[in-house]
Write a structure and sequence with these properties.
The protein is of the alpha+beta class. The protein has two domains: 249 residues, Spore Coat Polysaccharide Biosynthesis Protein SpsA, Chain A, CATH 3.90.550; 84 residues, Hepatocyte Growth Factor (3-Layer(bba) Sandwich), CATH 3.50.4. The protein contains 17 helices and 17 strands. The strands form five sheets. The chain has a six-stranded mixed beta sheet. The protein has a five-stranded antiparallel beta sheet with strand order 12-17-14-15-13, with helices on one face. Helix 5 links the parallel strand 1 and strand 2. The N and C termini lie far apart (62 Å). Its EC number is 2.4.1.122.
């Protein structure tokens, strides 16, 4: 059945009108919607691979750098601690004195310097800035006495402060152990504000945990690709689509224009963030929600260069075989921190992983190259370690590592490999043929730079 000419013309006219109206409506909604509206966040999340800038591995290693950076002059480092983990700051101080040096750095915490006397290499006292107390002063200026009662976190901090003041260390330790994560939440916003005020000439601001290790060559190379005159908020992207945030333990990186946009341009949002820190579940998530309010979003294209695991359990995946790593996390003791520094602190380039150690023996006793299991790993039955190995090294397998547990005859395979650690009784290995191929491909790409 053919349409009448008049009906056909009407249909064509309607389609043309919709082609104009719909984009206009979408643009109008985009302009009118609040920066943190769920539709805007949904759109950004689903379009992030298109709209967010990124760096390929070959681009990362490319020289000359478009925006060279001096880590001592251009970068301000904040190391965030708490009373319960205050001993880690001594390890960080040792790192700084032994080569992981930043001229502009601050220790921030929920206690004062007097509670942890430290001196630098020149014998000068090292100040620990109680940024949690900064939050308390700010919110108490905004909230009346009755309103303050609605926030239990105020009382918890007051208890910690009082215990430290009167040297009731047992009570302070108990509060830190039970409510340390809540004290951590109120430290993020004041830490960034303090650094912004204290270091006005810094181009970049890094907020790291006291159990985070930074690899200077990788950091310097990475920042050298970013224009510090623009607003940047980058890190290891985690969380749901409506609140993607830079994981604090992997290090949060923010440019000065981004902080100026917040602290100079939106003081109302800053004051609101201080109050919201009294109820927020995570401080690093609060940072992203605060930035959302002013139209600044995490640039996820750089996420893969940041890492939230310690060296032994960091996953080396197919697409990250030659990617440099900027940070390690969960390094809990000063001794462990110095051990990591002994390996990475003398590196001069952010080099790719070596295969030499992996090729020495196909089956390793009392070790594990798989690590934790999740939805991407496979666990099957196998009679021997050799049978488990063959499941991993079959022609089309994406498996990079395997671990065999003789007692249960369980074979675990994974699409990644880790350096690993001692696991008595287990037998493990890597798919060296596939590792060689992946390494050859990415190294070839790097050599073309």
């Amino acid at each position: 059945m053919m349409l009448a000419p008049g009906v056909l013309r009407l249909g064509i006219r309607l389609v043309r009108q919709l082609a104009i109206v719909i984009p206009v409506l979408v643009l109008l909604l985009w302009v009118l919607l609040p920066n943190d509206h769920f539709l805007r966040l949904w759109a950004r999340f689903n379009l992030s691979t298109i709209i967010d800038p990124t760096l390929t591995t070959s681009q990362f290693y490319g020289t000359p750098l478009p925006y060279p950076v001096d880590l001592n002059q251009d970068v301000a480092l904040l190391v965030k601690s708490g009373y319960g983990t205050r001993h880690r700051l001594r390890g960080w101080l040792d790192l700084i004195q032994r080569g992981l040096h930043f001229d502009k750095f601050l220790f921030v915490a929920d206690f004062d310097t007097d509670d942890l006397a430290m001196v630098d290499a020149k014998g000068e006292p090292v100040i620990v800035h109680n940024v949690a107390n900064m939050t308390m002063h700010r919110v108490m200026n905004q909230l009346n006495f009755e309103a303050q009662k609605r926030y239990p976190r105020i009382e918890k901090y007051t208890t910690l402060e009082g215990a430290l003041k009167h040297e009731y260390n047992t009570i302070a330790e108990k509060v830190a152990l039970e409510f340390g994560w809540e004290m951590d939440t109120i430290k993020f916003i004041p830490s960034l504000e303090l650094a912004y005020i204290r270091f006005p000439k810094a181009k970049w601001y890094l907020l790291a945990d006291d159990d985070t290790y930074l690899i200077r060559p990788s950091l310097e190379q990475f920042l050298g690709h970013l224009d510090s005159s623009k607003s940047f908020y980058v890190g290891n992207a985690v969380g749901a689509w409506n609140g993607r945030f830079a994981h604090g333990g992997s290090t949060i990186v923010v440019s000065r224009p981004a902080l100026a946009q917040l602290f100079n341009g939106h003081p109302d949002v800053v004051e609101e963030a201080y109050v919201r820190s009294l109820t927020a579940s995570l401080g690093d998530h609060l940072v992203t929600k605060t930035f959302h309010r002013i139209g600044l979003y995490l640039k996820e294209g750089y996420s893969r260069f940041f890492n939230g695991e310690p060296p032994a359990t960091t996953k080396i995946r197919h697409d990250r075989m030659c990617d440099p790593i900027i940070s390690y996390h969960h390094i809990k003791t000063s001794e462990a921190m110095m051990s990591v520094h002994d390996v990475f602190g003398h590196a001069t380039t952010p080099g790719a992983p070596t295969l030499q150690q992996l090729e020495k023996q196909p089956i390793i006793q009392d070790w594990d190259h798989v690590g934790g299991l999740d939805e991407y790993t496979h666990s099957v039955k196998a009679d021997t370690a050799e049978a488990c190995q063959s499941k991993c090294t079959s022609k089309w397998s994406p498996c990079l590592a395997w671990t065999f547990i003789p007692e249960t005859k369980v074979c675990n395979t994974s699409p990644w490999m880790i350096v690993g650690q001692t696991e008595v009784g287990r037998m493990t290995g890597v798919n060296t043929q596939l590792v060689r191929k992946l390494a050859k491909d990415c190294l070839s790409s790097m050599n073309k730079v």
